[in-house]
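Discussion board: Methods & Data

I've been asked by a reviewer to show the raw model output for two of the constructs in my manuscript, not just the figures. I'm not sure how much to include, so I'm pasting the format here to get opinions. Each protein appears as its amino acid sequence followed by a line of discrete structure tokens. Is this the kind of thing reviewers expect to see in a supplement, or should I convert it first? Here is construct A:
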Amino acid sequence: MFYNISKLLLSYFDTINKKKVCTFLKDNKIGKISTFLDVGSHHGETIKTFKKNFVIENILA
């Protein structure tokens, strides 16, 4: 039970952080990413989020 609650809580804060990063990149007029490097990708949530918001040519995970 503790594991599920902590996983949910961390996922919530991770989502907030991803939104901040996407907003920062959009504000700086970055819409196309030539190479996206996701270090430590586990489930691919970050890749899905960035693919939804940007045009990515090459993904290294």
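Construct B, same format:
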Amino acid sequence: MTGTLLFHNTMRIREGHLDEFRAAIGTAVEFVREHGPQLMVEVFIDTDAMLAHSFQLYTDDESVLKHWELSDPHIRDVMEHCSVERFEVFGQPGERVRAGLRTPGGESFATTITPRLTGFTRVAASR
């Protein structure tokens, strides 16, 4: 089953990598702003806890797969400066997306998938 998917990626920033993480995530977000299929990308950071939270909204599985294909080099750059602490998927991803929920190096991480009940998306003008 597919449909709207919301990803929440909680990343633990590596000690001594805060500036590099900020630069890499900034470059990655600018790239997907120009070329990515996401409807929304927002990243929040808690520097005291050295945690970052990325939220990404997709129309369906195909848009997730397209993002991974286009953005792999940027994802790898970001991952040099952090580790995935928790990855939450809201919606019902298909098998190809489920199978792809791994680091660029192929390692797994804590993942939860919560099926959608109801809702809608209202898209406002981007900043």
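Answer (T.O., handling editor elsewhere):
This is acceptable in a supplement if you add a one-line summary per construct. For B, something like: The chain has one domain: 5-114.
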